[in-house]
Amino acid sequence: MEGVIRRIERLLIANRGEIAVRIARTCRAMGITSIAVYSDADEGALHTQECDEAVRIGPAPARESYLSIDNVIAAVRASRADAVHPGYGFLSENARFAQACLDAGVIFVGPPPSAMQAVGDKIAAKRIAADVGVPTVPGYLGEDQTIEAFTREARRIGTPLIAKAAACGGGKGVRLAHDAAQLRDAVEGAQREARSAFGDATVFLERYLESPRHVEVQILGDRHGVYIHLNERDCSIQRRHQKIVEETPSPAVTAPLRDKLGSAALAIAKAVGYQNAGTVEFMLDANGEFYFLEVNARLQVEHPVTEMVTGTDLVREQIEIAAGTALGLHQKDVAPRGHAIEVRIYAEDPANGFLPSSGRVLEFRAPSGPGIRVDEGIAAGSIVTTDYDPMLAKLIAYGESRAEALGRLQAALHDCHVAGVATNVEFLRWLVREPDFVAGKAATDFLDKHHWTPAKPRPEREVVETLVAAGALQSLGSWRLGSQGRTVRFSAPAASVQAQFDWRTSAWMVRDGQTGIEVRPLAAPDFELTADGRSESLRAWRTDGGIELAVGDPPVRRAFALDALEDVAHAGAHAGGQGGSGSATAPMSGTVVKVDCEPGAQVKAHQVLAVIEAMKMEHAIAAPFDGRVQSVNVRPGDRVDAGDVLVEVEPAALAQP
């Protein structure tokens, strides 16, 4: 009701991970009781500890917990919450959920369902933008969803083009077709991923702009008709349409262009009666022309950079607007100062094709210092699963200038380390020092043109690290007092190492052929390596499959899988891909969504045999070589674990005609 201000005392956060933690911290500052929800996979997770209360909402699969409107509303009632904050992702842009909250008599911290519906469908939003005079990218927004219609329209639009889900978000349901031959796979892949992630398989086409920048404008609107924008963010560095780095202000936006972008964003917001926080996204071409992309009717992952330069707590603004309070800010009050850059830390392995990683977090070393902010969703002991988005934390750096912010970010990434799961930290260290990024030259195809190669240790250093792993393993394993020595066998990388404890030096003497070192345990997980009279500090942790090291400065993750070791419990590591065995295996746990072969079929090397979904992204499983399919062991819908054999392929040289 307009003019009525309702007090919010108990707020349920319908989300998980770092955004739930971040919202809880603002609730604490406002004297509001925060209530977490969690699935079985998240019992005891950091966000449940950071909130004042926690309510279970179902089993691990998101559809049965975080995406279940009935389960979340039941938690609202059980917890006696008087408001719900959806965060981002999951149900945050679901108009039915927003209405369900209102029907349950609680405040929804977000836009009204009508505004959410108006902009939530990307097709409808483009039509609204065009009606208020905001430029849009040429495309096809029709209701005919047959492949024949898409093929016909693709000829009219021209290639390359993007097939994009009408309900897309977070890089999901977006596929690029470079030519007409790729169109069917692009459309079907976008439809399939969109159906899984959003429950809506509607797709549209738009012309793919070559090397554009992705620029978005943060808006706020209250129920009293006051609208403001807090300037732009540049989100051009992306991988698979998923943002990795965000900054404000954009190095490519001039003051006149900033005014035009802000005016365009507010024109769209006013046209739909938008309220609360939202983001209007644009593509910016090389000539400085901008085109409307979409509206995200929620808080954005990258909101901290705007908070850093404007001094505005966007979550507080969201809560106060939802309660009916008039915006205290006016456009003339928005006076950004300085520069802020954010990077996203993901549980993924860049050295292995950016495949999702899972496991127990053994350590999270978060950086600190002037101008540094960390929004984290993990701590030591947290379990990372493949059921949800792989983002673990966000690292934000602020400075009076872009150069100062970048220098602080580089230093912070130098100090950052996550043990227990593979992450993209080393990749980010490279990215923020890449000369074109440092110069502010970023576009959405940046990572197509700039390729990261994981640094490999020198052969002699690799031997030393293997010896260190064997020595540290003895202290972390269940070795017996009085043991004279033992052989440690690693399967990855393959090595056989002799280790013996020296009681005089309280250290393990480890040898591989002619190379020998000394590994001295300190206070776990710290160790000291001595080789050729020189000492070096390192850290080591026992894992289910072997041991993990953090070596060097900055710390680099090294993982070693055990083959066999007397007296030390261990588990063999799963295979990570397709080898020469003829088995196409699952590189991670996930769900089979497509099988593209059948027994007896002839296949070529690298031909896609099956597709699995993990962490809300699809991953193609390819044939290891030319040959014939011997057996298909899975069907769509099957749940698989890392290392499971999906398809058996007989090499062409052995296959019978």
Could you characterize what this model shows?
This protein has 657 residues and is α+β, with helices and mostly antiparallel strands. The strands form nine sheets. An eight-stranded antiparallel sheet has the order 14-13-10-11-12-15-22-20. It has an eight-stranded antiparallel barrel with strand order 24-25-26-27-28-29-30-31. Strands 3-2-1-4-5 form a five-stranded parallel sheet, sandwiched between helices. Helix 4 packs antiparallel against helix 5 (113-120). The longest helix is centred in the last third of the chain and has 18 residues, at 459-476.
Overall 3D geometry?
globular
Largest sheet, in brief, is: 8 strands, antiparallel
Whole-number total of structural domains? 5
Classify the secondary structure makeup into a structural class: alpha+beta
Q: Which parts are unreliable, with pLDDT below 50 for 5 consecutive residues or more? A: 564-581
* Cross-sheet strand order for the largest sheet: 14-13-10-11-12-15-22-20
Q: CATH-wise, what's the superfamily of the largest domain? A: ATP-grasp fold, B domain
Helix content: 25-40%
Q: Report the end-to-end length measured between terminal Cα atoms.
A: 75 Å
SSE layout and pairing:
Blueprint: E1 10-13, H1 17-30, E2 33-39, H2 46-50, E3 53-58, H3 69-79, E4 83-85, H4 95-103, E5 107-108, H5 113-120, H6 122-131, E6 139-140, H7 147-157, E7 161-169, E8 172-177, H8 183-198, E9 203-207, E10 213-221, E11 227-239, E12 242-248, H9 255-271, E13 276-284, E14 290-296, H10 303-310, H11 314-323, E15 339-346, E16 348-349, E17 355-356, E18 359-360, E19 363-365, E20 372-376, E21 383-384, E22 391-399, H12 402-415, E23 417-419, H13 425-431, H14 435-438, H15 446-449, H16 459-476, E24 486-492, E25 494-502, E26 507-512, E27 515-521, E28 526-531, E29 534-542, E30 546-551, E31 556-564, E32 583-585, E33 590-595, E34 602-603, E35 608-614, E36 617-622, E37 627-632, E38 639-640, E39 645-651
Parallel strand pairs: 1-2, 1-4, 2-3, 4-5
Antiparallel strand pairs: 6-9, 7-8, 7-9, 10-11, 10-13, 11-12, 12-15, 13-14, 15-22, 16-17, 18-21, 19-23, 20-22, 24-25, 24-31, 25-26, 26-27, 27-28, 28-29, 29-30, 30-31, 32-39, 33-35, 33-38, 34-37, 35-36, 37-39
Helix pairs in contact: 4-5
